[in-house]
Amino acid sequence: QKEVEQNSGPLSVPEGAIASLNCTYSDRGSQSFFWYRQYSGKSPELIMSIYSNGDKEDGRFTAQLNKASQYVSLLIRDSQPSDSATYLCASELTGGGNKLTFGTGTQLKVEL
Amino acid sequence: GAVVSQHPSRVICKSGTSVKIECRSLDFQATTMFWYRQFPKKSLMLMATSNEGSKATYEQGVEKDKFLINHASLTLSTLTVTSAHPEDSSFYICSADPSGNEQFFGPGTRLTVL
């Protein structure tokens, strides 16, 4: 069964700190990976996509991918209270018709 | 760009009635749209892939006769929950991919069946 695993949290970090969110996937055929942010009662919002091993930075966000370890992470620098949300990791199989498999999400709380 | 809208945002209906949810891509054309369902504190589960001009592809365990999908144009897909029951109460979200690389989600429709 194709799975994406995340720690449900909550992960609590103080304001200004770095939040580190982790995700593992089971299917080695996965080629594309995405991080979505979901506020309570709202739909997911795309934050980052990553397709190659290594790091990809966009503002305060850095996505990291290690295909050998089947591991994806998201770092949020200078965390703000507005970053408090659930972060969903998703993978897409090559040739999978653009279908996404989502993890259960990690709840992040940024405390003042 | 890449804006997806849904209507209605919230609907309450009686058990046994049917509910139609619309998903529109506002600034791009989408030959494929996806319908998800999310129960409280759970992740998104893909229900079906909506294909413009052809039949939808349903995921295993999703009843195609209960969840009718029509993708009549390049900017509109509809999901009809037929004979809704309380266990169908959920957050229904559609998505579309303008470039084949990244899916963008609609704001979701919260369905409550009494």
Give a concise summary.
The complex is a heterodimer of chains A (112) and B (114). With 112 residues, chain A is mostly beta strands.
Number of helices, where a helix is a run of at least 4 consecutive DSSP H or I residues of chain B: 0
**Helix proportion of chain B:** under 10%
Q: Low-confidence spans of chain B: pLDDT under 50, at least 5 residues?
A: none
Sequence of secondary-structure elements of chain B? EEEEEEEEEEE
Number of strands of chain B: 11
Q: Which bin fits the share of residues in helices of chain A? A: under 10%
Q: Describe the main β-sheet of chain A briefly.
A: 6 strands, mixed
Describe the structure.
The complex is a heterodimer of chains A (112) and B (114). Chain A is mainly β and 112 residues long. Chain A is 0% helix and 56% strand. In chain A, the strands form two sheets. In chain A, strands 2, 4, 5, 9, 10 and 11 form a six-stranded mixed beta sheet that branches. Chain A has a five-stranded antiparallel beta sheet with strand order 1-3-8-7-6, with no helix packed on it. In chain B, 0% of the residues lie in helices and 51% in strands. Chain B contains no helices and eleven strands. In chain B, strands 2, 4, 5, 6, 9, 10 and 11 form a seven-stranded mixed beta sheet that branches. The A-B interface holds A 32, 34, 36, 41-46, 49, 88, 97-105 and B 32, 34, 42-46, 49, 57, 91, 93, 97, 100-108, 110.
